[in-house]
Design brief:
Layout (H helix, E strand, L loop, with lengths): L1 H21 L4 E13 L1 H5 L3 E11 L4 E11 L4 H4 L8 E14 L7 E23 L25 E22 L7 E13 L2 E13 L1
Antiparallel strand pairs: 1-2, 1-8, 2-3, 3-4, 4-5, 5-6, 6-7, 7-8
Length: 217
Amino acid sequence: MRNRILLFFAFCGLVASASAQSNFNRFTYNAGGGLGIGRDDVAAFVGNSPQFTVGGGMNFTRMFGADAEYMYYDLGFRPSVKQEPGLANQSGHMQSISLDGIVNAPRHFGKLGAYGIFGIGFYDRSVSVPRQYLGPSTVYEPAYKWWDLNRDIFGNIIPQYMSSNSKVAGGFNYGGGVTYRLNHIHNAKLYIEWRYHRAYQSDGKTIVMPITIGLRW
C-alpha cells in the first residue's frame, strides 16, 4: 500500500511538472514603435526618426524562443541636410526582415519580466529625390554617398542624373527589453525595448538603435 501511495504522488508530481512546463504561450507576437537613434552616417544625415516593428514566432520553452520581425525605419534627412543642392525633397527609409533568438529571464518580479534578443537579417535602405541633372560644377555633398554617384579621380561629380537608389545588405541586431503583464487584451504584455541594428551596405555601415514601446503576446 505504501509503495502505491508513493507511486501515486510521484505520478501526480510528473503531471503537475508537465502542466507547468506547457503553461506558457506557445506562439508569440509583438507590435510596437517609437524613436530611432542613428549612428555614424544615419546620425549625420538623418538624426533621430520614427520607426515601427511587427513580428511573430514560437516559444520552445518558458526561457527560449525565436521570432521573425519586420522593421520600418524612416530615413528622411535633417532640415539642414535638405538645404544642400538637390536634396530639398528627399525621402528615404530602411526596411528589414530578421530572424531572432529570444532568451527570457527565468524569474519574474510580480508582473515584471525581462528578455534578451539577438539575430541576423536583411536590410533594404532606399533614398529618393525628384529626378534631376547634376552638372560638372556640382559640389559633392557628404549625403550624396547614399546615391552611389560616379566621381572622377579628383573626387568631382561626373555629369549624371540623380533620382533614387536602394541597397540591400546583410546585418545583425541585438538588444533587450522589459515587460509588464496586463490583465486585458488577451493577457498582453506591455514592453519597452532597446535594439542595436547594423547593416553592411557596400557604401558603409548603416547603424540604427530603435527604442520601441508596444505589446507582446
